[in-house]
Amino acid sequence: DSQRMGDSQGMAREALRRYCGYDSFRPGQEDLVDAILSGRDVLGVMPTGAGKSVCYQVPATILPGLTIVVSPLISLMRDQVDALNDTGIAAAYINGSQDSAAQSAVFEKASAGRLRMLYVAPERLETPRFRDFAVHHDISMVTVDEAHCISQWGQDFRSSYLGIADFIALLPHRPVVSAFTATATSRVREDIIALLRLTDPMVKVTGFDRPNLFFDVITASAKAKKAWIARYVRSHPGESGIVYCSTRRQTEEVARMLAERGVSAVAYHAGMSPQERDVSQRRFVTDEATVAVATNAFGMGIDKSNVRYVIHHNMPESLEAYYQEAGRAGRDGEPGRCTLLWNESDIVTRRRLLESGDENDRLGPDEREIVAASRRRLLDAMIGYCHTTQCLHRFIMRYFDDRDDAGGAAERDVRSCGMCVNCTSTPRTTDVTAIAVAVSRCVHDLGQRYGVGRIVAVLRGSKARDLVERGCDAVPSYGVLASVGEARIRSVVYHMVSEGLLSISPGRLPIVGFGPQAARTVDPGFHLEMSHMEPERVDAVAPS
Ligand code: ADP
């Protein structure tokens, strides 16, 4: 048996060299490949760019039968398949862009054993024609790419993913099932294993640690953000960088501002024509332009290794999204810098977008609520990152639960990692104990029945009619924070949520209640600090 294991390892390395052109596997890849080749189901969790594809492409070249790859992005299938055919792996796809004759040609090729890999969207598995094909052919492996789409707790829930397990159950010989994702929360992982019905899978979470990246978080007003970007970009001439903005308008504004200062910057967003975007992309990739100012539409298929910095002009919707975008810095292993600029209004904007949830039209009301609740949780983690006083590397590793056997950052002592702002600068923390105690008191006074807005209004002593009519001005905590800015109190509330002192209920009207750690606030030794607070603006609380 160990002989056979040795053989398959040799074959895997040989396939890696022959088809991918690499001499060695990256951490985690070989374990997943070996597990697949020994017939064991796997779940591989790796950030984008870590090399998930190799983990199923290499086995696909060795396994006797066909590998079906389930992938949500029809638009990328063609590129993926072309790239595989270029390297000598016989691959094809079947999707709605082809006519019936073209589909038949692919089925024939597969039937004749002349295909190693077949890419399909999940919906395809439900069609009678595809099912008929599949039950009559030797399917060695079903690979599920972007497997988090099966979970309602992730970002991109697709109900069609729920049918994959039934499709697999239909096959006369159960193939090995391999699933891959870059989304790593334990909830999503549990869903993938349960809903794909993986059997005793090898779960490998790896590659999240990026020790060459320096992480920085800066609170700044809208004006200060632009000034900071201009200063940073100009003091790093010739270095390639990406500035992510959340809207097309901001993207164009920032690109124009940089251009006016003599920086060769290109804009990139979904409002531009495909040709315009191609031009931007090409200029950036070839180093003709040093800076790309972009919305998150940029970077999907981009493989540029010498990006030295990634600046976020706004807070993204999740730590997953942030880490994926920030992670485009330093792909070559050389130092990279990732700076997140944010302020309170980013949180407000994000919450509003989240509640509107317009792209979820296809979902029923219950599903929509579950998706909204999970997005809220993702956003809370993002806000937690902005406020934490911990090492930022460690915060990220804990979030992704990266326990690489080789000893990822989560296991190492990273008290002073030297690669994040919290570990290098004298902490710019603010003691918010008194505010936190008042907030707790107020949540108690209001019987855990109101949202953040009402709590802030009560603490600041608002005379709003609705508030007075409900008697909220009669509680002991009324007006005790009259001299503290609204934004600051809100920040403390969100920080308390991420510390588990408070919780925000799901639902259209989110209600603030106590969290699992709430008892801490009544402990005499209770103390709470926050990083990266926006300085209190005197003008914001000036008497009117
Ligand atoms: P993912 O699917 O996880 O986003 P990819 O599979 O596209 O990542 O791989 C990202 C990049 O890393 C690609 O350019 C790929 O060729 C490269 N890569 C993957 N595995 C290795 C390896 N073992 N050695 C060197 N480069 C690799």
Automatic annotation (TrEMBL):
Cofactor(s) the protein needs: Mg(2+); Zn(2+)
Entry EC number(s): 5.6.2.4
A molecular function (GO) term: ATP binding
Entry keyword Amino-acid biosynthesis: no
GO cellular component, one term: cytoplasm
Residue ranges of every copy of the Helicase C-terminal domain listed in the record: 225-379
Keywords (A to Z) from UniProt: ATP-binding, DNA damage, DNA recombination, DNA repair, DNA-binding, Helicase, Hydrolase, Isomerase, Metal-binding, Nucleotide-binding, Zinc
Signal peptide: none
Top EC group: isomerase
A GO BP entry: SOS response
Keyword Isomerase: yes
Reactions accelerated catalytically: Couples ATP hydrolysis with the unwinding of duplex DNA by translocating in the 3'-5' direction
Domain Helicase ATP-binding: 33-202
Family of this protein: Belongs to the helicase family. RecQ subfamily.
Protein name: DNA helicase RecQ
Source lineage: Bacteria, Bacillati, Actinomycetota, Actinomycetes, Bifidobacteriales
Stretch of the intact protein here: 3 to 546 of 641
